[in-house]
Automatic annotation (TrEMBL):
Pfam families: Pyr_redox_2 (PF07992). SUPFAM superfamilies: FAD/NAD(P)-binding domain. This is Thioredoxin reductase. InterPro entries: FAD/NAD-bd_sf, FAD/NAD-binding_dom, Ferredoxin-NADP_redctase_2. The lineage of its organism: Bacteria, Pseudomonadati, Pseudomonadota, Alphaproteobacteria, Hyphomicrobiales. Keywords: Flavoprotein, Oxidoreductase. It comes from Methylobacterium goesingense. Residues 2-282 form the FAD/NAD(P)-binding domain.
Length: 299
């Protein structure tokens, strides 16, 4: 039986494995090899690694793990997980099973995209979910915020940090703007368009404009999406984790969950979805798992 099984080889999972390797724990890291940020050209906002391509970061992290002989990394999908009296059991896609005393899920999320023509085609290079990650590279260009409901005004105002040419598109979805809301948006040079969107057009490399169903258009260098509902890993639901309305796990201070011995780190947990934050969450989950193991061993 392993001390810890980690599911997911992104920043959270890799950093958790690193910390646990340094604690000399027996760790199995399982990664299906389908990272959410595979469509992203560069990872921004990571101390000393700003702008590094995600796959380069991953390769460097995997090389770091090679010095810790108690950490085994396998490129295999975990297809099922269950809680047992003495820990956890996971079923792998090759039909084998592995057991551990503690389990860290760093599975990330499946990103849902609005059903608008062109959004999927430009996802990661023109359509983005995080202005902190991609706003700077699109600064001082025409930006479109795709948002509706209570989140719309706040997200549009947030984008004015990076551009004075912001269009807020509600895609004809119900959004109640008060006169005060409209005044605030107008003062920040945000144009509100409440018409349904037909498609996003561009040259194949970068978006150029939003086309509306009434025939109107707006210039667009990049689209930023409001936080969309995301589908959690089925492992999270199999193990009985609590979920928020946004589909993420409401973790405690050290990435603990309502399931004893189970930790959730990275984008599947409740905090902001930055690579550097995910790595920090992985470290905190590793610290907590090691502490629980130590306490159990000396009890």
């Amino acid at each position: 039986m392993h001390d810890v099984i980690i599911v997911g080889g992104g920043p959270a999972g890799l950093n958790a494995a690193l910390i646990l390797g340094r604690c000399r724990r027996d760790v199995l890291l399982c990664d299906a090899g389908t990272p959410r940020n595979a469509v992203t050209a560069r990872t921004w906002g990571v101390f000393t690694r700003d702008g590094t391509p995600p796959l380069v970061l991953r390769a460097k992290a995997e090389a770091d793990l090679a010095r810790y002989h108690t950490v085994v990394r396998r490129e295999v999908e975990v297809v099922a997980a269950q809680r047992r009296e003495d820990g956890f059991a996971v079923t792998l896609s090759d039909g084998t099973e592995a057991e551990a005393r503690k389990l860290i899920l760093a599975t990330g999320l499946h990103q849902a995209l609005p059903d608008v023509e062109g959004f999927a085609a430009y996802w990661g290079h023109g359509v983005h979910s995080c202005p902190y990650c991609d706003g700077y590279e699109n600064r001082d260009r025409p930006l479109v915020v795709y948002a509706h409901g209570a989140a719309a005004k706040g997200m549009a105002l947030e984008l004015t940090v990076w551009s004075r040419d912001v269009t807020l598109c509600t895609d004809a979805k119900t959004t109640a703007f008060s006169s005060r809301d409209r005044d605030q948006l107008e003062r920040k040079n945000v144009t509100i368009v409440e018409t349904a969107i037909r498609r996003l057009e561009g040259d194949g490399e970068q978006p150029h404009r939003i086309v509306f169903k009434d025939g109107g258009t707006r210039p667009c260098h990049a689209v930023f999406l409001m936080p969309m509902p995301c589908d959690p890993s089925r492992l999270i639901t199999q193990l009985g984790c609590d979920l928020t309305q946004k589909g993420v796990v409401p973790t405690g201070a050290y990435e603990t969950t309502n399931v004893s011995g189970l930790f959730v780190a990275g984008d599947a947990s409740r905090r902001v979805q930055f690579a550097v934050v995910a790595a920090a969450e992985g470290a905190m989950a590793a610290f907590a798992a090691n502490t629980e193991l130590l306490r159990a061993d000396i009890a």
